[in-house]
Amino acid sequence: MSTDEILLETEEKMLKTEEHLVQQFAGVRTGKASPALIENVHVEAYGSHMRLKELATITAPESRMLMVQPFDISNTKAIEKAIQSANLGLNPATQGKFIRIVLPDLSTERRQEFVKLCKKITEEGRVAIRNERRQAMDLLKKAKNDGTSEDEVKGAEEEVQKLTDGYIKKLEEHLVHKEKEILTV
User: Fold this and answer.
1) What is the DSSP letter of 149?
2) Are residues 48 and 96 in the same domain?
3) Which of 86, 175, 176, 177 lies 20 to 30 A from 19 at CA?
4) What is the pLDDT of residues 136-162, one digit of tens each?
């Protein structure tokens, strides 16, 4: 495996880690309604576990309300039960073909809990990025032993470190943005 391939693969993995962090942040509640808050809730339907976004249309008609419209009305009760048991502090109410979810105001204490959760998610992301760096460094050492020039390996190691620093900085920026979003009343 060449140093360029190692660098490309490492950057790809780090990008996926960043995307995963952003996706997890979308599920953390802020002051306003967002379909991303519940779209990954697992619902037991058709004999298996499916994500809510696969079973219904989710919209935010108002800043403090979500509307869920199941594709199949027979799944309404299962969807309602899944949202309640998702531990998001939401109480869905069925109204005909729709499920309405009014978001309660967040207390300062609850906002702080969400900030802590975001910090934990970010730390997991940092650990994943560092693991990618370690794996890349191991591959580069192996390439060095297989005959790749020392200068080329040294340059690639520096590039891996730059990638690592850059992606950790990006994770921090996402955290700062999400914290601000959560704490804005």
Assistant:
1) -
2) yes
3) 86
4) 999 999 988 888 888 998 999 999 999
Bridge partners for 62 per DSSP: 65
Residues spanned by the domain of 135: 3-26+107-183
Q: Do 21 and 111 have their domain in common?
A: yes
Decide if 77 contacts 65 (C-beta within 8 A): no
CATH of the domain at 80: 3.30.1360.40
145 with 173, same domain? Answer: yes
Q: pLDDT by residue (tens digit) across 35-64?
A: 888 888 899 988 898 988 999 999 988 888
Residues 15 and 73 in one domain: no
Q: In residues, how long is the chain? A: 185
Model confidence, pTM: 0.74
CA distances, 164 to each of 8, 18, 87, 129, 182 (Å):
13, 11, 34, 6, 27
